What does this fold into?
Amino acid sequence: MTTTNLKVGDKLHGFAITQITPLPSLRATAIRAAHPKSGAQFLHVLADDTENCFSVTFPTPPPDDTGIPHIMEHSVLAGSRKFPVREPFFEMVKNSMATFINAMTSQAYTVYPICSNVKKDFFNLVEVYCDAVFHPELKRDTLRREGHHLTLEDNNNLDSPLKVTGIVYNEMKGAYSTPESLVYELAGRGLFPDTPLGRDSGGDPDRIPDLTYEQFLEFHKTLYHPSNALIFTYGDIPTEDHFKFLAPVLDEFSVKEVEKLKEKNGGAGVPARESSGKTQAGTPVPPSATPTLQHSNTPIRQPRWSAPRRATHEYPIGKTEDDKARTFLVFSWLIGDMLKPDYVTEWEVLDKILLGNEAAPLKKALIDSKLGADVFFAGAGGSAYELSFHLGIKGSEVDRADAFEKLVLGTLEKLAAAPFEKSRVDAAFQQLAYETLEVTTLFPMRVLHGSNSAWPYGGDPLTYLRGKELLDACRARYTKDPQMFNRLITDGLLKNPHRLFVVLRPDRDVQAKADAAFAAKMAEKKKQFSKEEIARIAKEAAELEAAQGKPNPPELLAKLPQLKVADLPAKPRHIPTKIYHISERN
It folds into this structure.
């Protein structure tokens, strides 16, 4: 196991070591530190691994459905103070040994990770990432390009219809056009209508155009500060080297209390997108009753329902497409707290018992029922800091909804009545152990994900980095109490009223109605502009499109850190191997 000479209380380069914890199952040591001047938090998982990882995570619970966390993720990667290059990371990929370089927006945080096996390359990428997140240019045109802007269908014809476009806007329109994505949105976020988890951090296309440039700048000013930053590193680069590199980046800032974000439009989340009068997924929260979005790490919990709810929605299909066997039926339960690792581990094991293979009892019951073509969106999972359980089928019919409900609840009642065969439970533990403990490709990213399963919500970042210990403890509890998993079914599912049943059915007319409503809205909006303003919209849109196709000037590209041949290891790393000869047996 990799160890360190650092001690709790040591102070180096403005950092103070607060905790040092062995992680035997990772053969690593976790070193936690604080940077008092800026307020940044730091975690290094020190391991004998040359694939080093860096990330900075910002808790970014969405204040509304405009997709501002997603748009900001794109925008900070569009040029910064030190590197005023459009899309510097695409340029860096051309000159890097990176094994991973990207950024992701989740329901409640945004993370910017990179991985590399070359130390110089690693710090080159970290330099660009830090400048991007803390000092982005964020020009007005950045929001217009990455988020949304008005244009004409034909910018050479001022009489052509007005429309909205933008990279994130178009991306989310595509996402909202597929039934699978809609199921994830409606059944997943639908459990949390009164909290930030019920809003679309990616952006609802109908709401994205509501985002103003002023709100865009305020979001960055408020949340993209080191006092709200969780800095993660993994690998064999000494912790002191990370401190030395990050010190001048963080020393520019002074610690501050991260402010509250004001919510707009009631923050109603999924229920605001009702597609039929049949929906009962929840009532939009009036602005006066909307909880204030605290941007501390304290999660805003969804008030539990007193009775199950049902929602019916439509998704578009073509006029000539067959609508038979195209319905999705999904049950979703809010079952608990993601910050309780013992409880979460029990549900992960139960997930494998019920659904882990084709012969698993719940999955087999769904398949044998012939109520749908296949099992879909099924199992336990984290919705940020809330734990949920989903059970769905696709390729079904609307009139099978009641039969599906009866089948699911009846099967669960039977499964809860008697302990599971020990062999089935042992197999579930083994399956989960393989998934949890196996060292796979991009393993540093898995460690990062484990840390971010608790850290952005005020939890211990090491909570889910103790996979073996959690599994061993769960197995010990099961040995003492063979009915443990049966009670989970009873208490977490059968007796749990916080249940949402989503029916998503195909509709040949819904897209035409939406397109007509949008066209009417754009036509009315266009009437508000003078001819001169329409001409300006067309001109600016054409210029923005033309600018996207222009290469970065060589003098700006030269500002990016360059990796040289001399920076590469003289020899590839030797990985010890043993060759075994297996003789054939007659």
In short: The first helix runs from residue 68 to 76.
